[in-house]
């Protein structure tokens, strides 16, 4: 079974904030692929939705912990390195421009607290990540990200502007397609197809 996780913070006040990109994208994936409605999984402190794509069973999962405790929702589900290879974590990435995304495997956290929490909980970095850009970029595509801890915190917890939300909605279509390719054809095929976009 593939488990696809959207990182963010639960609660109304975090709706449409940049740090909630993973949750926002996953809800779009759920709608695009006709998954079931979200249901509460109290044991794993998460919201879940399930269906099959082809013959592959898939679970979408939104941790209901805060970002830096995201791993709590996965420690009972991902209990081996083999299972970790069927884990896909969708999260915001300051190093990518809004409207861009990259698929990676077996990489460091890049300082992302939610990713660090998952790696600690499942004791491996050997899982797939879909890193979704949230930073503004200039006309040449050079990313202009905030500098300093406070500026970064204010930026990621700030709400998307309307044009940014539109760009995110567009990229969600490609991410939904990429999820199908990941599940049905494998990560190498998905990386080859989407990382050059």
Automatic annotation (TrEMBL):
It is found in: Cytoplasm. The keyword tRNA-binding applies. TRNA binds at residues 14, 66, 68. The active site is at residue 19. Signal peptide: none annotated. The lineage of its organism: Bacteria, Candidatus Tayloriibacteriota. It comes from Candidatus Taylorbacteria bacterium RIFCSPHIGHO2_02_FULL_45_35. This is Peptidyl-tRNA hydrolase. The record marks 9 as: Discriminates between blocked and unblocked aminoacyl-tRNA. One of its GO terms (biological process) is rescue of stalled ribosome. The keyword 4Fe-4S does not apply.
């Amino acid at each position: 079974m593939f488990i696809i996780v959207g990182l963010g913070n639960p609660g109304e006040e975090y709706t449409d904030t940049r740090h909630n990109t993973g949750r926002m994208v996953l809800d779009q994936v759920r709608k695009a692929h006709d998954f079931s409605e979200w249901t509460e999984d109290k044991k794993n402190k998460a919201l879940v939705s399930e269906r099959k794509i082809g013959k592959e069973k898939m679970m979408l999962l939104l941790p209901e912990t805060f970002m830096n405790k995201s791993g709590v929702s996965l420690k009972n589900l991902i209990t081996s390195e083999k299972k970790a290879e069927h884990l896909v974590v969708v999260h915001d990435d300051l190093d990518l421009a809004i409207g861009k995304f990259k698929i990676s495997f077996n990489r460091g956290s890049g300082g992302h607290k939610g990713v660090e929490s998952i790696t600690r909980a499942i004791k491996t970095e050997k899982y797939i990540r879909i890193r979704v850009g949230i930073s503004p970029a200039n006309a040449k595509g050079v990313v202009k990200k905030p500098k300093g801890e406070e500026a970064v915190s204010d930026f990621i917890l700030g709400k998307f502007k309307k044009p940014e939300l539109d760009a995110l909605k567009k990229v969600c279509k490609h991410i939904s397609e990429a999820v199908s390719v990941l599940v049905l054809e494998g990560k190498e095929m998905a990386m080859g197809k989407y990382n050059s976009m």
